[in-house]
Amino acid sequence: MHYPLNTPLGRMGVHTLEEGPDRCVASIPVGGLLNPLTRMSTIAPLAMLVDHVGGLINHLRRDEDEWTVTSELAIELAPHAIDLVTAAPKIPVVATARPFGPKGTAPLGLCELTHGDHLLGTATVRSFHIHAPGHLVAWPTDTAEGTPPATLGDRMSVEVAETGSRTAVLRQLSDPVINNSIGIVHGGVSAAALELVGSAALGDGDDKPWRTASLRVNYLRQFRAGHESRYEARTLRAGRSSGVADAQAIGDDGAVALVARLTAYR
């Protein structure tokens, strides 16, 4: 399935290849996209892919009167993941998701990430099933021709606010295209932005750049874009070979909506 460019999935270039209660498959382009804070290659779009396909497999387990919202997202990557993506930028990353365990209170979707014949990593998405909200926004159904914006910053509607020693900040601009069906910033967009600021806060790694190994995100409340909405990160540790950064998404109301921890190695 190809999505219109005026939806968050279409804007980010996500294609759903298979959709069913036992298996969902989707892809996203990653090669050639740069972190707007560092101007270096990034794996941040994988968070968008994982949120979509992992959330979808959980969504398909809902009852008729239920909806799903993501509560947790986690990605674990192979050490050479960014090298594989940048060596063959025209090949999209594919995620295959399956349900893991019973539905329960917070169902879990398990994902495998591949690039061509190579395994890039694994990921999980945990969701809450809630009563279906009465204010769902219908996504546009037109299939206008074209391609997503050239830069990752434009695709995500973010702009650089600050980058310095051990800190990084991105502004989340208000843009209905990157909102989900309940009118808030799509969880995949916000998770990807947390990876961008987290990796940027660690710095350029001198002559040996940092490589994101894991990203763990908790969704605390709805994240709405506006004049004050932003993503912030600070370094907790930057050693010889490992680094850890904490990141958060702050909504237009000033409340922390998402928190994340990023671990990187070099």
From TrEMBL:
Superkingdom to which the source organism belongs: Bacteria
UniProt GO MF annotations: acyl-CoA hydrolase activity
The keyword Hydrolase belongs to this UniProt entry's keyword annotation: yes
Domain (Thioesterase) ranges: 183-255
Key words, A-Z: Hydrolase
Name listed for the protein in its UniProt record: Phenylacetic acid degradation protein
Originating organism: Mycolicibacterium alvei
